[in-house]
Amino acid sequence: METLLTVLQVIACIVLVTSVLLQPSKGGAAFSASPQGVFGSSGGTNFLFKVTMAMAAFLMVSSIILSRDKIQEAKRSFIDTGIPAPGTPTPLVPPPGTSPGGAAPVAPAPNAAAPAAPNGGAPVGSP
User: Fold this and answer.
1) How many domains in the chain?
2) What is the pLDDT, as a whole number, of residue 117?
3) Segment (H or E) for 71
4) Is residue 88 part of a domain?
5) pLDDT reported for residue 70
6) DSSP element (H, E) containing 60
7) Which residues touch 25 (CB under 8 Å, ≥6 apart)?
8) CA 15-53-51 angle, 5° bins
9) Has residue 60 been placed in a domain?
10) Would you tell me the crossing angle of helices 2-22 and 43-81 to the nearest 10 degrees?
11) Distance between CA atoms of 84 and 91, rounded to whole angstroms?
């Protein structure tokens, strides 16, 4: 639904810009071609004005709907995902069975043998 509404918004933006640019200018020769030949003597102005108003209204309503959905999603995301909300204090003591770094602690084995010496146990520097 969100993707469809976003695609419709992009199309509405393109139609809105086009309809604004096709309207006859009031002050001069910004665009010399007149849409009056296609739509009649005054029909083009009314038609383009109605298209412009409809696209502007659609963009406003769809923007409000999308922003309302995003606000609703942001309000429930902390609860649903288990992520603490901003400003929530974090516990100072980690839960039982975990280490402060997040990984399990590694303790040396009590009867661990010393690592083997390089060169098969021969002293360093002997031939």
Assistant:
1) 1
2) 58
3) helix 43-81
4) no
5) 85
6) helix 43-81
7) 31
8) 45
9) yes
10) 150
11) 11
Rounded distance, CA 35 to CA 18, Å?
A: 12
Give the mean pLDDT per block of 10 residues along the chain (127 residues).
Answer: 91 94 70 52 73 95 91 67 66 66 58 59 59
Task: Tell the residue number behind the tokens 């399990």, with chain if given.
Answer: 104
Distance CA 35, CA 6 (A): 30
Q: Where are the beta strands (DSSP E) in 17-107?
A: none
Q: Which residue has the tokens 């309302």?
A: 68
The residue type found at 5 is: L
C-beta separation of 47 from 36 below 8 A: no
Domain span at 6: 1-14+44-77
What's the alpha-carbon Rg for the chain, to the nearest Å? 35
Q: CA 72 to CA 89: how far, in whole Å?
A: 24
